[in-house]
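Feature request, filed as a ticket because there's no other form

It would be nice if the structure record came with a short human-readable summary line next to the tokens. Right now we just get the raw output. Example of a typical job, pasted below so the devs can see what we mean:
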Amino acid sequence: MKKEGRPAAVVNIKDYMPKRDDSNLWTHLFVLLVILVAVYYNSLGNGFVADDNGFVKDNTSIRSLTNIPDFFFSPKSMAAADAEWGTIIYRPLRTASYAIDYAIFGLKPYGYHLVNLLLHMGASVSLYFVVLSLFNIPGAAFLSSLLFALHPVHIEAVSWIASRADLIGMILFNLTLLSYFRYKEYRSKGYLVISLVLSFLAYIGKETMVSLPALIITYDYVTRNRRPVLDTIKANFVNWLLFSAVCLAYMVIRFNITGRMSTNQGWWGGTAYSNFLMMAEATAIYLRLMVIPYGFTFHYIIDPVYSLFDPGVMVSVFAILLSIAAIIYFHFKQRMVFFSLLWFYIALVPIANIVPISFSMMAERYIYMPSAGPIIAAGYGLYYAYKKLSEKSAFARRAAVAVIVLIFFIYSVEIIMRNEDYKDEFAFYASAVRVSPASPPSNKGLADQYFNRKEYGKAVFYYEKAIEADPGYVEALLGEALTYRESGELEKALAAAKKAAFVEEKVAALKPKNALIRFNLGNIYKEMGDLESARAEWEKAVELNPEYSEAYNHLGIYYQLKNDYKNSILMYENSIRANPFNAETHYNVAMLYDAEGASEKARAHYKSFIELAGPEYGDVVEGLKGRNF
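Raw output as currently delivered:
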């Protein structure tokens, strides 16, 4: 019989699936969301940690909704810590969402955590419908989406505000698939157009979603229903070409806006061969985290390896081959399970360090979307096992239910406990050091927290632990220098900063020179009263990074102190050109224009300062408002 809304000649994969009963659908979704909220509720009391500061707390550009177009076309506005972050991490939808959050919640962290939770709920619900489309079994969809919602490997993506791009990208990824499934079912071009648009939005949500075209091709392959492969290619080639074209268009647009496709990170281990051997170990760790979720940390350490016969590499390759054998097995047994398992490896390609990722070989948030594939297969497996055991006896059915409940209970407890690690930055880094005591970034992060607490002795201790683990870790060397500076030991500060600059010169062939070192070396010289050496270092900083707004600002102050107002204004203007959201520079140049009698120019910059100034400038802003700016 012909189905309504679909031409009779079209073969629909659902015609070969079990008929489903949707009577429990809304109950499934209600239970899914209630459990998810209950488990992640304690994350709402957490604060800003690590990158949250640069992307949210200190990022003045998110404090006005009118800046949203800049996030798409002027990526240097995406982070406060370093304007270059925007060209490394181009995720405009995430930054736009932060601006909306700020308009509603200001800088109250609970609001941002609430939005992350809502987005995770959206990803879990949309995955429910993806699984429903794949298997046509509500029970399998429920177990898969609940596994996804409660799998501990996703804690970082949900509880860390800076990981929001993964949540946004995942929702759009799922919606792209759902739209394409509808297109395949009804042959409506409208669904195809919607799917193509959503795929582009998924890419600007997070760049790692570029595996979408390959997954679309895989879906068409597994749903071909004994059709010859060549006929499947002919029937779907145009669609594949369209999805690939949209993906390529995104890459071209991204490159034209940011000027790069990746960071300048060299190969992990120094060579491409070592890089991929290390990635084999990372892949095995991902597989382990999926199956046995424990030992989570902020920074995973994978030591360089140079031989395929390294024991760690051999074990990793064996685990990968075992998983590939399972994928091949299900190719012949259950095509949708095959599709789900292959999803992991297809989605792993963008994070496989073919283009090396600067921060780490691996991170839990990287597999938020790739993990959905194996989770779907596991959810279907749980459902299948439950059905088979239920047919044997009531006792077997109850035992199956007990095992499933126990799994979700263990996952829930682990989530609730690990959410405490994101309570504040001290808890975040203390947890990371506890799990990975040799991790340079974790020790450096904990040192930063002791620095903020003015416990300078402990700060130096952890900076030195980070340097011991990685002698070339210039950021830790710089942190040690700043600690000595704050404790008034300027000679030690100068020596440490010079050492950081020296080490940085040695590693310059592997990565870009660090303008931040020169900037802070200049600040130390300034505090020692050596303004000429300070100026020289600030000039080196802007030579290394022509977009270094703060360095230009300090040069403006230098020339102002020298009564060279022409060069002072030039430096301030360069600072604002590099970062139009630099509130301090707007204030400095406004005061200079005010003193020079250029009242209109001064008024314009005072207004910009008032719009951009953070809470730390509250008294100054109030004073200026009294002047009717």
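Something like this underneath would help us a lot:
DSSP finds 29 helices and no strands in the chain.
The mean pLDDT is 86.
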